[in-house]
Design a protein that fits this description.
3-stranded antiparallel β-sheet; 113 residues; globular; homodimer; DNA-binding; alpha+beta
DNA sequence: TCCGTTGTTCTAAAAATATCGAACAATGTG
DNA sequence: CACATTGTTCGATATTTTTAGAACAACGGA
């Protein structure tokens, strides 16, 4: 398998990291990875097709949020916690922390387009 | 001017907040507002057309990041720091904090599409 | 070597976002 | 009232992002 590109720590951009984390599927992936274990791509969300998941992993990797390394036929993912904490202190903790806040209404309820 | 809709604190969604903050213009707005003052829409980014800015303010408002109140012909914006800190502790601080990290390379340098 | 597993890439299509000019609304001032 | 100021809304276009099927590549095991 070809060597995967990972942007170095100094090149991480906050806007790209935030965008990567602003998708529900990707946020879910990151939260699972935040538990610490390296997890293969296949261990997430069996409902979505593989190509879709592959896309999300790529977005996470290219924004610098995760590190991917292939081992055999699998691809193990880890959170780049050190790099993220160094560049954006407190960000990961704030995002991974479980929050409650249930509300049935949509943000777009009124005043939407 | 019509009363503007602001989602209540309990309805804020992390993914929407992150998406709102993942745009460079909007991030810039938020950082200026983080200094504490209420600022009119016109005080930001004179280069972009008003309709574009209006759109960005709307995204920020509907995601719950800012509060807008009209006063005369102006529209004053403030950060909803209390609500954001309550729902997503540490998030705003992490995002507003100035970071250094200069790197000429694009994240998409290799392995892009 | 022949399969099964795992994941990527290609491609197309759909959906969501962003941009911005033009028209409009609300307010304040001369 | 006429007019300037400030900002919103509408409409059209362009760009980006998401989704997912199909073909493919790499690896491991029988």
């Amino acid at each position: 398998m070809r060597e995967l590109h990972h942007p170095p720590r100094e090149c991480l951009e906050l806007t790209q990291v935030l965008h990567a984390l602003s998708d529900p599927i990707r946020l879910c992936i990151v939260r699972q990875l935040a538990l610490g274990e390296a997890l293969a791509c296949g261990t997430f969300c069996e409902t979505a097709p593989k190509s879709t998941m592959s896309h999300h992993f790529k977005v996470l990797r290219l924004s610098g949020v995760i590190h991917q390394r292939s081992e055999g036929t699998s691809c193990f993912n880890t959170l780049r916690r050190g790099d993220l904490d160094a560049r954006f202190p407190g960000l990961l903790d704030a995002i991974v922390r479980e929050e409650v806040g249930a509300c049935g209404n949509s943000v777009w309820e009124e005043d939407s387009r």
